[in-house]
Amino acid sequence: MAAVDSKVSSIAAEGEIVVSFANVRANLPGAGWMQPLRAEALARVMRDGLPHKRLESWKYTDFRGKYAGGLAIAAGVEHSGERLFDVLKCHRVEINGGRTVSVPAAASCQDGLEILNLAEVLAMPSLWLRQWLQPGELVMENLNLAFANGGVLIRVGRGVKVDRPVVLRSFLSEAGTAAHTRAVVALEEGAELTLIEVDDGCVERQSLSTAVTSFDLEPGARLRHLRMSAREGAHLVMRQDFVELERDASFESVIMSSGAAMVRQQVHARLAGSGASFDLACAYAAGDGQHTDYTLEVVHEAAHTTSRILAKGVASGNGRGVVQGKVIVRPEAQKSDSHQMSRALLLSPGAEIDQKPELEIFADDVKCGHGATIGSLDANQLFYLQSRGIPEQEARGMLVSAFMGEIAQRLPAGYRDEVEHWLACRMKGLAL
Predict the structure, then answer these.
(1) Is there a single domain that holds both residue 266 and residue 391?
(2) Which residues constitute the domain of residue 416?
(3) In a domain, 333, yes or no
C-alpha cells in the first residue's frame, strides 16, 4: 500500500509540473528556438518520472519520496545582511529566486573576459550555445532545461588569465517555491579563471532549486573552482555539473555542503584530451534532518590523464551522507592515473553514511585505486584534550574541525580564512 501511495503522489507531483510549465512557458527567456527544446525536455521528465530509490544511481537518495510538489516559481525577494565573500575583490554575479539580477558591466571586466546574463543571450539565435542546451538522459537535467529562467554565461578568451575571481551567488528564501538556473563556463585555449559559487538562503517550508553548470575547457585551460552550498532549512538542492576537459586542461574543484534538508550534487567529468587533469575535493556536514549526496562519475577517454577524488564528511543526529564515486577508463586511455578516497565520521548512533566507490577499467596499463573509511571520534584524542582543561563539547568540535580541515587547506590563502570560519561554525553545531 505504501508503494501505491508513493506512486500516486509522484503522478500528482508530475502532473503539477506539467501545469506549472503551461503557466510559465510564455514568460521563460529564449527565442523561438528554445521552445521545442524545453518541450522535449519536459516530455522526457514525464516519460522517466521523478528519480526515486529504485534507480541504482538514486538508491540512497529518494527525491520522489521527499518532494512534496505544489511549488510556485520563485519571484525573488530583497535581501540584506552579511554574505560570504562580501569584501573580496572580484567580478560579482547575483542570482535571486532563479533570476539573474546583476552581472558586471563589460567595462569593468578585463579584455578577454565575458560575463553575460544567460536570459539575454537566449534571446538571440546563438548556434554555438545550443550544444549546452539540449535535452539529456538525466531527469533533473531535463527538468532544469524545461524551466530555466536565469543563469550566466562566462567565457574567457584564448590565453587570458583573469586576475580576479568571479563570484556567483544564488539566493533563495521564498518558501514553497522553485528556482531553476543554468550556467555555461567556457575557457578557450590557455585561459585561466577562478570561480566561486555560493548557494544561500533559508526557508521554513519546502523549496526546490535546480542548477546545471557546463564547464568546457579547451587545451591548456585551467579552472580553479569553489562551491559552498550554504542553504538552510527545508531546501531541496539539486545540482548537476558537466565537465569537459581537452588536452592538458586542468580542473581543480572544492565543493562544500551543509544545512539543507536534501542536497544532491552530481558531477560528470570527461577527460577527452591527453594530459587532462581532474581534481575534486568535497566536504559535507549532515546534521539532524539533513541529507547530502555526492554522486560523481569520471570518464578517462584519452591517454596520460589524471583524476583525483577526495571526500570527507560528518553526520550527526539522524543526518545522512552519501558518496558515490565511479571512474571509467576507456580502452584508449592507457597510462591513466586515478585515485579516489572517501572518509567519514559518525557522531551519533542514528546517523548514516553510505559510500560506494567503483572502478570500470578497460585498459591494461593504468594506475587506479580507491578507498573508503567510516569511524567515530577517537576516544584517546578526546580524553587528551579534556585532560588539558578543554570542555568536552569544545574538544569534540576541535576534533571534527581538524578532520575536515584538509579540504579547506586546498584553497588559496586569499579566501581560505573565510571558508574555514564558516566550516568551523558548521562543525561546532554538529559536534554538540
Answers:
(1) no
(2) 386-432
(3) no
All 3 cell numbers of residue 352? 548514516
Length of the chain: 432
Report d(CA 407, CA 177) in Å as an integer: 33
DSSP for 344-406 reads: EEE-STT-EEEEEEEEEE--SS-EEEEEEEEE---HHHHHHHHHTT--HHHHHHHHHHHHHHH
CA distance 189 to 222: 9
Distance CA 370, CA 325 (A): 9
Residues 394 and 262 in one domain: no
Residue 59 is assigned to a structural domain of this protein: yes
Does residue 377 contact residue 396 with C-beta atoms inside 8 Å?
Answer: yes
Distance CA 389, CA 223 (A): 45
Q: List CB contacts of 69: < 8 A, sequence separation 6 or more.
A: 9, 12, 13, 16, 17
Q: Write down which residue in 272, 291, 307 finishes a domain.
A: 272
The total number of structural domains that make up the chain = 2
> Residue 203 — very low, low, confident or very high, per pLDDT cuts 50/70/90?
very high
**135-191 tens-digit pLDDT:** 999 999 999 999 999 999 999 999 999 999 999 999 999 999 999 999 999 999 999
| Number of neighbours of residue 272 by Cβ within 10 angstroms | 18
- What whole-number distance in Å separates Cα of residue 191 and Cα of residue 140? 30
The counts of H helices and E strands in the chain are: 8, 20
In this prediction, residues 22-47 reach a mean pLDDT of: 89
Residue 300 placed within a domain: no
pLDDT at 394: 85
From 221, 250, 272, the end of a domain falls on 272
- 283, part of any domain: no
Residues 335-391 have pLDDT tens digits of: 999 999 999 999 999 999 999 999 999 999 999 999 999 999 889 999 999 999 999
- Measured between alpha carbons, how far is 241 from 211 in angstroms, rounded to an integer? 8
- Cβ-based neighbour number of residue 252 at 10 Å: 17
Computed from CA positions of residues 173, 252, 154, 422, in that sequence, does the dihedral angle turn out positive or negative?
positive
